[in-house]
Write a structure and sequence with these properties.
3 helices; 2 strands; two-stranded antiparallel sheet; about 130 residues; about 30% helix; mainly alpha
Length: about 130
């Protein structure tokens, strides 16, 4: 499951771009089944977005760039496509075959990926070397 920015008030020119982008309504389980799910996930989305903006500010400092160099791009006229995805990578037994995976090998797209991982190793960053 994933969520993104869906509030047209937060997306300038929404009517003009809505059919050309990945913006759209998020789908949630019924509040009768999971009453706090939507509000909890939306708060998490806001906090992770805020964390991403702070990471961009740290990049600016580390790279000796002007203040808001990256932030102005990501908070510009058309907001970035930001996804909060709920993925579970279950632990694998030591004797698991090499092709047993929770989610297959893939490349994350975009500028940064923020990964929250607790007590379960297994995800790896690969490079072309």
């Amino acid at each position: 499951m994933g969520i993104n920015i869906e509030d047209p008030e937060k997306i300038p020119r929404y009517e003009e771009i809505k059919d050309k982008t990945l913006y759209g309504p998020n789908l949630f389980p019924s509040a009768e089944v999971l009453p706090l799910f939507r509000s909890t996930l939306e708060k998490a989305f806001e906090k992770v977005f805020e964390l991403g903006m702070n990471i961009l500010k740290a990049f600016e400092l580390a790279l000796n760039l002007p203040k808001d160099f990256f932030v102005s791009i990501f908070k510009g006229e058309i907001p970035p496509i930001v996804l909060l995805r709920l993925l579970r990578y279950p632990p694998q037994p030591d004797d698991a075959p090499p092709n047993l995976q929770g989610a297959g090998s893939h490349t994350d797209y975009g500028f940064i990926t923020i990964l929250y991982q607790v007590n379960v190793m297994g995800l790896e960053v690969q490079n072309s070397c």
